Amino acid sequence: MLAFNTFEAIFNTVVCPGDAFARQYFPELAVHMFRKYQIAATFRPRSIVEFGVRAGYSGWALSKGATDTGVVPTYVGFDSDIDQNGPVFVSHARKIISTVAGAVEIRQADTRKLVPADIPKADLVHVDADHSYAGALHEISIASGAASPGGVVVSDDFDYMLDVRRAVLDFLSANPRWFAMHVESWRGEAILVKPR
Ligand SMILES: C[S@@+](CC[C@H](N)C(=O)[O-])C[C@H]1O[C@@H](n2cnc3c(N)ncnc32)[C@H](O)[C@@H]1O
């Protein structure tokens, strides 16, 4: 059943207790999660790949959006910063995503070094790690190869980071059969649908 948590419940049960950033940017962060939830509830992915896990908020929201429509997804996340954020964020991410996904795997990797063979196929790939132009374009490119036909690549920060916006638009210019939608959110979502 589609039922997103109240923002108060998200604050109390999804946000990592030691996450000062999340506390500072609440409730905007909850709006961000709600949009991810709606996107996954619309596309109903059976498998989710994410570049940029941090404490697992978007991974949780995307997985819950699919699960609430009756499709329990698998989740594979990539993040380079696992040591710097400490095991706290990774174990928090694993814990919250596991409540709404089937198998959950978080791999420590720098997306700049990933090649297409490293990425499992997925119905939805969420791009939210390297926000430089070259980094975002590389992530979108390998995400596009991993996405299943009819699947989606979701890019965060489309309205917030000019380099990300430029990377999305350049990808679309080079791949005109991909269908694109823009969804307003805290920092803007670009939804890119892979042709069948
Ligand atoms: C904006 S946060 C992700 C937030 C998360 N998607 C969410 O919405 O809750 C970006 C994450 O990407 C990671 N990151 C940044 N550059 C990266 C890179 N080149 N390779 C892998 N991870 C990277 C950082 O460690 C950080 O955890």
Indicate the low-confidence ranges by residue numbers. none
Largest sheet: 7 strands, mixed
What is the residue-averaged pLDDT? 95
**Count of domain modules:** 1
SSE layout:
Layout: H1 7-13, H2 20-24, H3 28-43, E1 47-51, H4 57-67, E2 74-79, H5 82-98, E3 104-108, E4 122-127, H6 133-146, E5 147-155, H7 162-174, E6 179-183, E7 189-193
Parallel strand pairs: 1-2, 1-4, 2-3, 4-5
Antiparallel strand pairs: 5-7, 6-7
Helix pairs in contact: 3-4, 4-5, 6-7
The structure holds S-adenosylmethionine.
Plain-language structure description:
This protein has a single domain, classed as Rossmann fold (3-Layer(aba) Sandwich), CATH 3.40.50. It has helices at residues 7-13, 20-24, 28-43, 57-67, 82-98, 133-146, 162-174, and strands spanning 47-51, 74-79, 104-108, 122-127, 147-155, 179-183, 189-193. The two termini are 29 Å apart. By secondary structure, it is of the alpha/beta class. The chain contains seven helices and seven strands. The model has no long low-confidence stretch (mean pLDDT 95). A seven-stranded mixed beta sheet has the order 3-2-1-4-5-7-6, sandwiched between helices. Helix 6 (133-146) packs across helix 7 (162-174). The longest helix is centred in the middle third of the chain and has 17 residues, at 82-98. Strand 2 (74-79), helix 5 and strand 3 form a beta-alpha-beta unit. The structure holds S-adenosylmethionine (SAM). S-adenosylmethionine is lined by residues 52, 54, 57-58, 78-81, 110-112, 128-130, 135.
